[in-house]
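Sat 14:20. Reprocessing the chain from the morning session after the first attempt stalled halfway. Input below, unchanged.
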Amino acid sequence: MLDFDLIVDPTNQQILPMQGVSAQIFHQAGSEMKKACQKLNGLDVGKAKMTDAFNLPCKAVIHTCGPRYIDGMHNVGISDYNSQKRIVEHLIKKHHLTKINYVCGILQGKEGMERYRAYRDAMEEHGIPVCDCQVYCGNYNRESGRKAIEYFMKNQTPQAIVFANDAMAIGGMERLQQYGYEIPKDIVVTGFDNDELSAFYIPSLTTVDRRQEMLGEKAVDLLFDAQSHTSVKLETQILYRESCGCNCQTPKSIRDLRVEYQNQCLSYEEALDALKSMELDLTGLESVEELCSRLKKYVIRSDMKEFYLCLCDEKKLFAYDDIKTNIREQAICEHYTQKVHIPLAYHDRKFDSYGKFPSKEILPYEMRNKLQKTFYIVTPIYYQKICYGYCVSDGSVFALKSELAYLWTVNISMALENIRKWKCGKIEPRRIVEFMKEHRLTDWHMQLQLHKIIWNPDDRGV
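Finished this time. Tokens:
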């Protein structure tokens, strides 16, 4: 029986040691994962027997952050070099610009270096010299875009500024407008990535659409490809908008924009309110049983059809129940224990629990075979260095698309950490009493007084 077709770690924090996994897709953005899950969900592979007809490879990897490929795996990506070069050549050929400055990203990464190299090569091939004062090294956030403008304005004003991503480009346009420049009349600006704000900013930003959803679809196609370990680069799309003087798209009406923005705000606020309520509900808990009881209503309120809370061995997580255990010498559970258990499981609109099983199975084999699902999303539960376990959920809209989904897991990890601290604090008074009994360092009157202070802090009398 096909065990798992797709396992995604949305946080990219840790790759789980898995057994019987036919494919994994690791991602660094949301759109491609959503599309991959949608496509897999449409395939009836969960009910299929593992036959030669499927010929599934060992693993598939989505890389959308640059030309980084891993040997022995399927790889899907884009060419950052070609995409950036096309933007620069558009400014040179279409708009006849020569004074073009560049704001690069972090050059230690291949993505940043490839885009910067594309800019230099495009300028050189058209016989346009570039001096050091025309290049500013940013770090992909809006503030570095603002600082780039301040740096460029100390020298000769450029005709155009090419930014290595949209966030820096939008920060740069903000500062240019504050200085009184009109875009694109005075200075042309371009970005890269096609972030959501790029289409709504005034003026709309010329940028590169990385076509992330197509990356997700292609990754799934490779799972059923007979060829082994293929590497595919997909073509990007240049979106020519107002910031470079091109306006090829019909602008949305004000009413359409307002409705779209209104729906986004209402959806976000509703999810945020639920998170705030969840955070308060999970405060002050004293046991995992209480946590599971409180969690149930939030699982139901979400659109998840399946949810599994998988926790590490409690003897290692909450080892302070033994009075003689030295807390300072207690090892922190930094990794998944060999066996985990499921104190809270939700499927078929019912809640359940499950005993211990090997963590490398992710979910118990018999449970997976019974449910016959196509894909799951695995999210580690950590608090600093402490590993509490992981959550497993289906490909719901909330788990795949919501920006707040990760905070949902953070609330659970905080609650588990508070439970651990409560168990630790509860056992401390007992240790003090045991210490007094064993070492006889005080007389009986002092022992009685100290005992009352520990167990009845509001009663200070003898």
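Residues 1-30, 41-67, 321-331, 457-462 have pLDDT under 50 and may be disordered.
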